[in-house]
């Protein structure tokens, strides 16, 4: 065999340097392609989220066709076997027949409190229409004991936890627009002396004690929020997640949001504890609209359309010292806006009858 032939055969493989160059090129290609793949996946998740909100908005309009008004966010009830007033179920219980969940309606006892044991089967139902695909933890059921203070004497036990063994619970990524303020009286009219004053400040479309026909949305259905996102996966502190954002609960910070705080407050507000006036010890992270979509969140408007609002949408200035927007005061659950206070576009969109003039290019 000639020397030329031996030299030729010896160069059939790659040198170490050549191999490293190939690996580096592959790494660069992956680095270039991965963001595009992730962006495509997020676009698909955002599209599914949009579709979910369209379904819920359609269900809400079908509810209006049957009942001549939007579903009530929640109310106070006197459940069987109880001797006290308690907040009732969420507005989703009224929407169930309108997104093909009639079996859940037939399984629910409306004379009982949502947290009473006979309703535990419905509590354990999860609905994909209530889950944003970008909210990864919301579709995962939790098994949790219900704190006794959720039920009080309705539980029939002297203290500790109601559910033993714990119950299966599901959550939601979507909430009703309660307006600019978390209006939530401590009892029904005649029990809470401030009931009328508190509820009168609720200017959203689905809030506590609401009875809102479409004709009451004087700012225009295309300029008024109906439903919006709230990211279950972003609740802080994380150890309290299990009993927040429960889809069947009429508690304020479970199925209603307020624009008292800016959109996605995680990026704009430092929260160290419960905020002024937020029911149930909640804070901006539990009461505000939020999502895990980059740059904003999806909202269904009262006309049935769904639009993406950016984090940069105009909002009123927030004072971390008072835990309230500048120009807003709160006494006994009643919010007051100081005359001359500038209302942000985000807040104006949540008001059904504030008379604000908003152009489409502002959001």
From TrEMBL:
Annotated InterPro entries: DUF1559, N_methyl_site, Pilin-like, Pre_pil_HX9DG_C
Domain spans labelled DUF1559: 38-314
Record Pfam families: N_methyl, SBP_bac_10
NCBIfam families, A to Z: IV_pilin_GFxxxE (TIGR02532), pre_pil_HX9DG (TIGR04294)
Name recorded for this polypeptide: DUF1559 domain-containing protein
Organism annotation: Tautonia plasticadhaerens
């Amino acid at each position: 065999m000639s020397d030329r032939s031996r030299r030729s055969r010896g160069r059939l493989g790659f040198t170490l340097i050549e191999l490293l160059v190939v690996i580096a090129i592959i790494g660069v290609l992956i680095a270039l392609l991965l963001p595009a793949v992730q962006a495509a996946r997020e676009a698909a998740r955002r599209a599914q989220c949009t579709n979910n909100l369209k379904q819920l908005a359609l269900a809400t309009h079908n509810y209006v066709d049957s009942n001549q008004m939007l579903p009530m966010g929640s109310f106070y009830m006197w459940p069987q076997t109880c001797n006290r007033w308690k907040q009732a179920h969420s507005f989703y219980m009224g929407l169930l027949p309108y997104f093909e969940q009639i079996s859940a309606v037939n399984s629910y006892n409306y004379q009982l409190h949502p947290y009473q044991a006979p309703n535990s089967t419905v509590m354990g139902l999860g609905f994909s229409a209530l889950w944003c695909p970008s909210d990864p933890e919301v579709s995962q059921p939790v098994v949790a004991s219900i704190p006794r203070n959720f039920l009080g004497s309705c539980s029939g036990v002297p203290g500790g936890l109601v559910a033993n063994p714990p119950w299966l619970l599901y959550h939601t990524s979507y909430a009703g627009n309660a307006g600019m303020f978390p209006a939530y009286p401590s009892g029904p009219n005649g029990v809470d002396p401030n009931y009328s004053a508190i509820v009168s400040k609720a200017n959203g479309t689905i809030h506590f004690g609401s009875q809102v026909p479409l004709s009451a949305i004087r700012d225009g259905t295309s300029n008024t929020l109906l439903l919006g996102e709230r990211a279950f996966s972003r609740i802080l502190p994380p150890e309290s997640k299990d009993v927040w954002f429960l889809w069947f609960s009429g508690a304020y910070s479970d199925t209603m949001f307020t624009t008292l705080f800016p959109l996605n407050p995680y990026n704009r507000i430092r929260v160290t504890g419960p905020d002024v006036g937020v029911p149930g010890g909640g804070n901006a992270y539990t009461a505000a609209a939020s999502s895990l979509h980059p740059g904003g969140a999806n909202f269904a408007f009262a006309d049935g359309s769904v639009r993406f609002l950016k984090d940069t949408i105009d909002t009123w200035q927030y004072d971390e010292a008072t835990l309230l927007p500048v120009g807003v005061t709160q006494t006994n659950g009643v919010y007051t806006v100081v005359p001359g206070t500038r209302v942000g576009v985000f807040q104006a969109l949540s008001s059904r009858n504030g008379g604000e003039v908003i152009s489409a290019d502002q959001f």
